[in-house]
Amino acid sequence: MSKNIHTAINTWDSNLVTIAQALVLRDFGFNKFKCDACGELVSAHKQSTTGSKVHFEKSIQSTSEHQ
Question: Where is this region: Disordered (predicted)?
Answer without folding.
Answer: 48-67
